[in-house]
Structure formats: C-alpha cells, structure tokens
UniProtKB/TrEMBL annotation, chain A:
Transmembrane spans: 33-56
Source organism (scientific name): Tagetes erecta (African marigold)
Keywords: Hydrogen ion transport, Ion transport, Membrane, Transmembrane, Transmembrane helix, Transport
GO molecular function list: proton-transporting ATPase activity, rotational mechanism
Localization of this protein: Endomembrane system
Domain of life of the organism encoding this protein: Eukaryota
Membrane topology: Multi-pass membrane protein
Record protein name field: V-type proton ATPase subunit e1
Chain coiled-coil ranges: none
InterPro entries: ATPase_V0-cplx_e1/e2_su
Automatic annotation (TrEMBL), chain B:
Designated name of the protein: V-type proton ATPase subunit a
Lineage: Eukaryota, Viridiplantae, Streptophyta, Embryophyta, Tracheophyta
Pfam families in UniProt: V_ATPase_I (PF01496)
General function of this protein: Essential component of the vacuolar proton pump (V-ATPase), a multimeric enzyme that catalyzes the translocation of protons across the membranes. Required for assembly and activity of the V-ATPase.
Keyword match Aminoacyl-tRNA synthetase: no
Family: Belongs to the V-ATPase 116 kDa subunit family.
Length: 70, 817
C-alpha cells in the first residue's frame, strides 16, 4: 500500500473525525477547539505508532528464522 | 504580537475574581441558601481570628448539633426496629427549622418514655416468670419431702405404739420435753441461681455455715430471661434451709453476692396453687400490655423513618448555612453582613440573579451589593469538567493542582495517557475484554452513581471513562502488534516473508526472505514463534519508545513556551525555552533522526557507536557508520549547539532578573498615597507587593542552577525512562504467549475433554488474574509515572489550590456515614 498512501488515509480519517465531532457536539468555539485538539492528538498518536512499525519493517536487517518444531 | 491565541476548554483555569457581597441581615440566611444551591462561590473566612465559640451564629450551630444528635438517636431506634432509611424520599411538606426542632424534641421524649416503660414492664414480666418457676419447682421438693416425711413419721409412730407400753414412762417424758424444746425455728429461702455458679454457691454456703444448712437444687430445663441482665441464662431452682438468725443473714448475703434472685414461698399447698394462678394471670396481662406498647413504638418509628432522610438533609443544610454565615463579618455600623470570596467570572450574572431572588423572597427593602475587588492574591484554580473529563483531571490533580491559569496537562492526558497505556498493553483480545467490562459499568451508570459502592468498586467506577479510552487504544495497538491472546492473524494482506526455495529447507537456519511489499498494517504475522522474533521486536519496541518519548518531551517543552507567552514572560522564552529545545533536540532529536534514517535506508550502522563516539571523538571519520552525507559535520555542529545551550540556560536569566529588580526599585523611591476607603484590600496589596520586593541574587542563581542541572541530566534519564514502554510491552506479550502455549495448547494436545476443560478454566483464570488485572494496574501505574514525571517536569508547576465552592451537593456527598 505504500507509506505515503496510508499516511494520506490517516490524514483523511483525521479530517473526517474532526468534522463528525464538530457536527455532533457543537458547543461554542472554546469547546470546539478542545474537541479538535483531542481528535488531532489521537490521530497523530495512532499514525506515529503505525508509521514506526511500518518503517521498521521496510528494510529489515534480520529475517524470520523458523524454530525447529515447525 | 497583537493577537492572542483563541481560548480552549480545559487548557487554562477559568478566570476567577475576588468579589465582595454586602447582604442586609434579613435576607442573609436566604441569600446563603440560594448561593449554596448555585454552588459557584467560595467564601473566605473573614473571622479566622475568632474561636468557634466567639462566632455570631454559634448558638444556631449548637441547635443544629442537638438536632443531629436526636436524629442519630432515631437512627439507632430504626436500626433496632430493623427498618431501613428510605433513600431520598422527596415527598413531604416544607418544614422550617424551628418547627423541626420542636417536633424532634417531642418525638425524642416520647420514644425515651416508651423505651423506659417497656423496659420496666419487661423486667416485671421476667421476675414473675421466675417466681412462677420457683413456685412450681420448689413445690415439688416440699411435696416430695413431705410425703417421705409423713411416711417416716407413720413408721415411727407405729414403731412407738408397738413399743410404747414396754418403755419406762420417764424416758417418754424426756423425749417429749426434748421434742418441744428442740422445736427450733427452721427458716428457708427459695429462689433461682445461675447454673454456672450453682456449685460455687453450694460450696460457699456449706463453708460459711459450717454445714448447718440444707440446700436442695433443681434444674430448670430452658434458659430463663434474667430480669436484671436482660438476657437468657441457664438457672437452677434452689431452696436453702437454715436455723437461726445469723445463718439467715449469711445466706441472704451469699444469695445477693451470687446474683441469685429470691422469691417468697409458702409450704401450704392451697396457697401455692392460688399464687400460681394469680401469677399466671398477671403474666398474660403484662404480655398484652407489652405487645401493645411495642406496636405503638414501631408505628412511631415507622413515621420517623418515612421522613428521616428529609429531616437529616434539612439539618445538614442548615448547619452548613450557619457555618458559612459564621465566616461573614458583621458590619455593625451598616447593619449588614459582608462576604468575601472567589467566584468564576462567567458566574457573575448567575450570582447576581440569585442575590436578587433572595432579596425578593425575603421581602427585604435593600438589595444585596455585589462588587469585584482587585487583588494580587493568587486565585484558586477551576476547570469546568464533565463526567468524561473529570476523571482525567483528577489524575493530574493527584500530583498537584495547576497554578492559576497555567497550561493544564490534563488536556493532553485525555489522549496520551490511554495511548501510552495501550503501547504497554497491546493485545486486541485483552482490549476487547476490558472494553466489555467497562461498557457494563457505563451502561449501569445511573444505577451505580446513586448507590454506595465498596472502595475498589468505587475507584473502578470513577475511572470508567479512563478505562474505556484505555481499552479502545489497546484494541488499536493490539492490531498493530498483531496479538490476539498472543496469536497473530493475517488480517491486512499477505505476509511479506516467504521461503527462499519451495522446499523451505533452510527456513530454520538462514530464514525467510522478504518477497512482497511490507505488511501494510502492523507487525508481520510471520514473526510469531520464530527464533529471531525477540531480537526484531526488541529493536522495534526500544526504538519506538525513544521516538514516542522524545515526541512527548518536546510537547512538554512546547507547553512551557505557551505558558511563557501567556504570562508574557519573555525571559522564559529566550533564555529557557529555546536553549531547552536546542539541547534536547540536538542530542535526542538527532538520535530519533538517526533511527528513522537507518530504517529508511536499511543501513547496518551501529547507532550506539555513532552516539557514543559523537561525544568521545567527534572529529573521527565515521566509516561504515555513515548514514548520510555530511553526517560528521552535522554531528560536530549539534555537539557545539548542545554545549552552548547549557550556559545559555544557566547564566542570562538570573542576571536579567537582577537588572529588572534594580530598575523597579529605582522607580519606587516615592511611596504612593493611599485613598481612605477600600482600606482592606489596599493593605493586602501593599503586603504582597512588599513580598515581591525581596530579591536574593544568590537564591535565584542557585535556583536556576538546579533547574539547569535537572534539565540536562534529566534529558538523558527521562529518555531512558521511556524504555519502560518496551519493557512492559515485552512482559505482556511473553506472559500472554506462555499462557496460550503452555496451558491452552498443552491441554488441547492431550485429546481429553476433561483436561481440555480444566485447561480452559486455568487459562481463563490466569488471563483475568494476571493479564487483565495485574498488568492493567501495572501499565496504568507506569503510564501515570511517565506523565507525572517525564512529561510534566518540562513545564508544570502545580502549586495552586483547587476551587472548592460552598455547595449543598458537595457537602451532602462528604457527610455520608
């Protein structure tokens, strides 16, 4: 799928989530900013974790060596 | 720098103001009551110098205390009747405090009287029961004794008649005279003695009277209610025969000492039967009287129970109102009360409306005055949280309440805390279990919030939204680590690895190769169970921990920038934020960059080697550890920047503060004139202003030195501290895999249904006990530590105090027994 493509998917999910939250609970500018911050933080955390695990597997230095019993 | 950043909920404390309310006396009570309903005003104690007895409303509080005592007495009576307090019975007419006082007094005297009467009657009843027993049992002795005595007498008489004619008349006379003179008065005492003491009773009687008494005991089969002690005791009926006055006194004293109750007795059968009938009659009368009394008592207690909750709440409310009234100062000249306190700025209109309503409702001519005071005192911190955010805010407050208007870490904690927990807990099977458990708590929210729960349950219920977030993130990281109770699945596409040749001959020696694109989401499922799984995962998780740690620490330093900007503290921006950013990022930001570059290029460079030799011999050639062009020069530059950043953090700030202080002092040569009114808070201003003026240069320098050392050394230790993310995650996956392979698969391998069932049960218990409970607590604790120490020490001061308004809802929660 590629790194960039999935990153764009994460960005898209983040934008959709922010819009959904804005539609569901629209309670004034300070509350909206608060919800937006939470959504963005959550999206960034999730993307960071995925990106780290993906990058680590892109050019592996060690490969799976099956154990004897299998 | 004109525009200010837009405000955000929970980012900083609500703006607070110090306000003064002047209330006329007639509407004081009602005003405080309405403010208590509103719950947005924190009263300052203006009478802190006075003792509790000197305060204005001490008598009222004593009255409330008396009423509370009466209510406690009622509660004991209700417990005796086995009635439960009806929770929050909302019906019932409004009742004033004076009426309630009178009513409570009446009910108390009535109950006390009824209790005393019942006790007296019960005691009389028990005594009569004992008397009846004595009459019955002792009657048996006498009857038995008399019948044998008459039998003996008849024998003797017969004997005498037979032999009488032969005897000498002199002997006869002697016998008769001795008979008459020997007619000593035999007295007897009858009663009941407790069975356990009966042996001792007998022995003591024997010893003290030198064997000159005769004791006959008879056992009573069932235990008897003792009138003095009021509980059932096993007793014996006894009759003691003695001769003489001295013996009688001794016997009576011994009876009293042993708690033996004495009852009068006649040996006349006719009279005895009469007595028994009388006693039986009296007993049945007493019983009916006692029953009627108890019925009346329980009906009174029932009526109390119906209104108990309402009365208790009223008394508590009034007591808290009077405590608050005691904190107001009494302005005698103007015949009104003055209240000072903190309230949020947004609540101003609400408070003013409450004051107006109180004025109208108490038919007062003068309205209350609400004015805002200006002060340099530090206000309390207030965050408006809802049921979701309050748990996270409490987690932050447990470490320290935010200083007024500094950046609140609770804002980010809502997301980062469950996220870091999930990094350590990653398993989507366990995540689903946690999710279901907490969903249960949330669905039963309304029911549980009104109940009284045990301590542990209370904590779990209070943190239900935290656990919900934790479980959702755990499901996500479980998918990334590809672990479902430690079993991987190929959910997102095909695994990237395959054998080198179709026979898979060297799969166990050299291993597989990467034939397709990287597995799109998460860890490749091929890794699980291989020999090189641990080296790979360890490397991945350690580097991930470093990257996440550097990201969170940078966020912390960034928040300190926002704080400095908000408080318009330019020194902190230039001489603290910037050198800190430079230092952290030139060392650990560079390490993160190296990690990412190494992953992207697949180079075999040794990062430990690079970092260590960057310090030891920066000018050396990198050789095979070169990751990108110009790396050597970049490293030298970063090293120099880090070295420069340290004195940049240490030296300029104290010098500039000293210069600022001197400039301020030069302008303070002339003291300003104070106006005559508003004396109080200007005094306050002067005092706090005075405190600001103390400036010890050495103290500031030492403070800055400590801060710098803490940051520099802390940057290494804090970054290493984030490796706990790796450690706990490893522990979790290893435990999970052990339980799966060594319990479940082992039980499956035996092909026996019973062993399989036992295996499943053991697996479930081990998973719930160790992984779902212990690991959750453990990961919770470590995520908490990472937030409290590594994240918050970059920017948080946390030396504020919490806003605790006068509110009836809060006081009723506190006082629950």
């Amino acid at each position: 799928m590629g790194f960039l493509l999935t990153t764009l998917i994460f960005v898209a999910i983040g934008i959709i989530a922010s819009i959904c939250v804005r539609i569901c609970c629209n309670k004034g500018p300070s509350a909206n900013l608060f919800h937006l911050t939470l959504v963005i933080t959550a999206t960034v955390c999730c993307w960071l974790m995925w990106a780290i695990v993906y990058l680590a597997q892109m050019n592996p230095l060690i490969v799976p060596i099956l154990s004897e019993s299998e | 720098m004109g525009e200010t950043l837009p405000t955000m909920d929970l980012m900083r404390s609500e703006p607070m103001q110090l306000a003064r309310i002047i209330i006329p006396i007639e509407s004081a009570h009602r005003t405080i009551s309405y403010l208590g309903d509103l719950g947005l005003f924190q009263f300052k104690d203006l009478n802190s110098g006075k003792s509790p007895f000197q305060r204005t409303f001490a008598t009222q509080i004593k009255r409330c205390g008396e009423m509370a005592r009466k209510l406690r007495f009622f509660r004991v009576q209700m417990a005796k009747a086995g009635l439960l307090v009806l929770a929050r019975s909302a019906y019932g007419s409004e009742i004033s405090l004076d009426e309630l006082e009178v009513k409570l007094g009446e009910l108390e005297t009535e109950l006390i009287e009824m209790n005393a009467n019942t006790e007296k009657l019960q005691r009389a009843y028990n005594e009569l029961l004992e008397y009846k027993l004595v009459l019955q049992k002792a009657g048996d002795f006498f009857h038995h004794a008399q019948s044998s005595a008459t039998a003996q007498q008849r024998e003797y008489e017969e004997h005498r008649l037979v032999e009488g004619s032969m005897d000498s008349p002199l002997l006869l006379e002697q016998e008769m005279t001795t008979d008459i003179s020997k007619q000593v008065k035999l007295g007897y005492v009858s009663g009941l003695v407790p069975r356990e003491k009966s042996m001792a009773f007998e022995r003591i009687l024997f010893r003290t009277t030198r064997g000159n008494v005769f004791l006959k005991q008879n056992v009573v089969e069932e235990p008897v209610m003792d009138p003095v002690q009021g509980d059932k005791v096993e007793k014996n009926v006894f009759v003691v025969f003695y001769s003489g006055e001295r013996a009688k006194n001794k016997v009576l004293k011994i009876c009293d000492a042993f708690g033996a109750n004495r009852y009068p007795f006649t040996d006349d059968i006719g009279k005895r039967h009469q007595m028994i009938n009388e006693v039986s009659g009296k007993l049945s009368e007493l019983k009916t009287t006692i029953d009627v009394g108890t019925l009346h008592w329980s009906s009174v207690v029932q009526t109390i129970a119906n209104q108990f909750e309402q009365w208790t709440n009223l008394v508590k409310k009034e007591k808290s109102i009077y405590h608050t009234l005691n904190t107001l100062s009494f302005d005698v000249t103007k015949k009104c009360l003055v209240a000072e306190g903190w309230c949020p700025v947004f609540a101003t209109t609400q408070i003013q409306k409450a004051l107006q309503r109180a004025t109208v409702d108490s038919n007062s001519q003068i309205g209350a005055i609400f004015e805002v005071l200006h002060t340099k005192e530090s206000p309390p911190t207030y965050f408006r949280t809802n049921k979701f955010t309050s748990a996270f805010q409490e987690i932050v407050d447990a470490y320290g309440v935010a200083k007024y208007q500094e950046a609140n870490p609770g804002l980010f904690t809502i997301v980062t805390f469950p996220f870091l927990f999930a990094v350590m807990f990653g398993d989507w099977g366990h995540g689903i279990c946690l999710f279901l458990a907490t969903l249960f708590l949330i669905l039963r929210e309304k029911k549980y919030s009104s109940q009284k729960l045990g301590d542990i349950m209370e904590m779990a219920f209070g943190g239900r939204y935290v656990i919900l977030m934790m479980s959702i993130f755990s499901i996500y990281t479980g998918f990334i680590y590809n672990e479902f109770f430690s079993v991987p699945f190929e959910l997102f596409g095909r695994s990237a690895y395959a054998c080198r040749d179709p026979s898979c001959g060297d799969a166990t020696t050299i291993g597989m190769i990467k034939v397709r694109d990287t597995y799109p989401f998460g860890v490749d499922p091929m890794w699980h169970g291989t020999r090189s799984e641990l080296p790979f995962l360890n490397s991945l998780k350690m580097k991930m921990s470093i990257l996440l740690g550097v990201a969170q620490m940078n966020l912390g330093i960034l928040l300190s920038y926002f704080n400095a900007k908000f408080f318009q503290n330019d020194i902190n921006i230039w001489y603290q934020f910037i050198p800190q950013m430079i230092f952290l990022n030139s060392l650990f930001g560079y390490l993160s960059l190296l990690i990412i570059v190494k992953w992207c290029t697949g180079s075999q460079a040794d990062l430990y080697h690079i970092m260590i030799y960057m310090f030891l011999s920066p000018t050396d050639d990198l050789g095979e550890n070169q990751l990108f062009w110009g790396q050597k020069y970049l490293q030298i530059l970063l090293l120099l920047l880090a070295l420069v950043a340290v004195p940049w953090m240490l030296i300029p700030k104290p010098l500039i503060l000293k210069k600022q202080h001197e400039e301020r002092h030069r302008g303070q040569a002339y003291a300003p004139l104070y106006s005559l009114d508003e004396n109080i808070e200007s005094d306050l201003d002067y005092k706090s202003h005075d405190e600001h003026e103390e400036f010890e240069f050495s103290e500031v320098l030492v403070h800055q030195l400590i801060h710098t050392i803490e940051f520099v050394l802390g940057s290494v230790s804090n970054t290493a501290s984030y490796l706990r993310l790796w450690a706990l995650s490893l522990a979790h996956s290893e435990l999970s895999s052990v339980f799966y392979e060594k319990v479940l698969l082992l039980a499956w391998g035996f092909d026996n249904v019973i062993i399989l069932v036992i295996g499943i049960i053991v697996f479930i218990f081990a998973t719930v006990g160790v992984l779902l409970v212990m690991e959750t607590l453990s990961a919770f604790l470590h995520a908490l530590r990472l937030h409290w120490v590594e994240f918050q020490n970059k920017f948080y001061e946390g030396d504020g105090y919490k806003f605790s308004p006068f509110s009836f809802a809060l006081t009723s929660d506190e006082d629950e027994d």
